[in-house]
Amino acid sequence: MSEGKIRVGIGGWNFEPWRDNFYPKGWPQARELEYASRRLTAIEINSTYYGAQKPATFAKWRQESPDSFQFSLKAIRFATQRRVLARQHRVATVFTESDDYPAIAEPTADFVYTRIMRTVSNEPLGCQPEVFPALAAAAQTWAAGGEPAGLPRIELPAPMTAPRDVFLFFISGAKERAPHAAMALRRALGEAVQP
């Protein structure tokens, strides 16, 4: 059985602490998306949660990123805060790995969407090195259609399903470490990552 595509990224690309940390010293702000999109495979767009973007904005983002790159647009908050977006409509439940939000690993759609929120500033990669192989193994299991053991569930796991795409975003926590954590996870998945 083939696997779905695993995409690893961060939330946004304009963040002051990433300058001289993730982005090279002196790198132009206007080219930050260009740089990030060549080291990550996805970026979550937060601005769409608060309002619509112009078509020209989307076109500009597409022009600045490679064809293999993917954006994940947060739906407008009016839609995401509704309780009627139950499993029957195949809307993905976000698996949030955090102390502040419940961790629910329910595959309710044909893809898995994960937000890792526990990066720490005292680790150069945002997490201890042993975290990345475990995250990579979970992502590969999801991509193959399975479900990693030991995750919190509401219902019993379903039998193996079709391959599915997996999105893993390093969001919040020590946000200054998020790009390094994402690149470390890509390496744990066996992907070549530009320095």
TrEMBL record:
InterPro entries noted in UniProt: DUF72, UPF0759_sf
Pfam families for the chain: DUF72 (PF01904)
Origin superkingdom: Bacteria
UniProt protein name: DUF72 domain-containing protein
Lineage, opening ranks: Bacteria, Pseudomonadati, Pseudomonadota, Betaproteobacteria, Burkholderiales
